[in-house]
Amino acid sequence: MEWINAIVQGVLLGGLYALFAAGLSLIFGVMRLVNIAHGDFIVLAAFLALSTTTALGVNPLLTLVIVVPVMAVIGYVLQRGVLNQTLGDDILPPLLVTFGLSVIIQNGLLEIYSADPQKMNAGAIETASLALPGNLNVGVLPLVMFGVSVAVIAGLQWVFYRSALGRAFRAVSDKQDIAQLMGLNKAHVFGLAMALSLAVVGIAGVFLGIRTSFDPSIGPGRLIFGFEAVIIGGLGNLWGTMIGGIILGVSQNIGAQINPGWQLLAGHIAFLIVLAVKPRGLFPRID
């Protein structure tokens, strides 16, 4: 039962990793942009939630109402004001700019919040659990996170393939010049894509801050988890990203069950195995 419990907990952890990765997958699918600062934006969202909780005295889960729109606005302004000017045939400029953003965010958070680890308290939901057959107990908060993750991925999938905005995303992704001739504003569409990406980041940041302690330096680690989930599932495939996150979470929990020091190593090994066998991921998007 210990092994079954490790797998179940790994699946639920994978939901959080899928939230880390969904925004990366979305913006890569739309504009082939790799955002090096993605993990730092997750941490920024966690600190925004912390400040909102402190200022208003509300439950951290309620801060989603504020954090998600704020992160979406940041994403749109950032894309229109900075990142759109770096996009082109050369992938190096956006990588350098987002790396610079990562450094700025980390140092800005250090200046404002210091390097002390922080943690948000969501109350009774953190310790509540459901008893399952076989003497298994599943936390209510991890279940909520996993459910939200599935809903977010399903929502993004619907937006991408069933809405007018999604058609605009696919049009500028496939044929930018033709899309502009048809009346689409490429800069605006890219801005909306980044806004949607950072809205998801806002959700991930709030859940990160509730689930574990965080500080300004942990962004690159969250970025790695997000990258690994995206690449395991297949670049640009949202449901593949969900599966990639689950594989990563289960691998880490199985590694921790074997030896507590192997938790992160087991996830990286699973990532390398998938990369060696299927270099484009398990479910690559077919263009």
CATH class: Mainly Alpha
The pLDDT mean sits at 89
Low-confidence sequence ranges: none
SSE series: HHHHEEHHHHHHH
Given the helix and strand composition, which structural class is it? mainly alpha
Number of DSSP helical runs = 11
**What helical percentage do the residues reach?**
over 70%
* CATH architecture grouping: Orthogonal Bundle
What does the radius of gyration come to?
A: 19 Å
CATH topology: ABC transporter involved in vitamin B12 uptake, BtuC
Oligomeric state of the chains present here: single chain
Characterization of the model:
The chain is mostly helical. 72% of the residues lie in helices and 3% in strands. It has 11 helices and 2 strands. The protein has a two-stranded antiparallel ribbon with strand order 1-2. Helix 1 runs antiparallel to helix 8 (186-211) and helix 6 (164-174) crosses helix 8. The longest helix is centred in the N-terminal third of the chain and has 30 residues, at 2-31.
Brief description of this entry?
The protein is an all-alpha fold.
Topology:
Blueprint: H1 2-31, H2 38-56, H3 64-81, H4 92-113, E1 129-132, E2 136-139, H5 140-162, H6 164-174, H7 176-181, H8 186-211, H9 219-233, H10 238-258, H11 263-277
Helix pairs in contact: 1-5, 1-8, 1-9, 1-10, 2-3, 2-4, 2-8, 2-9, 3-8, 5-6, 6-8, 9-10, 9-11, 10-11
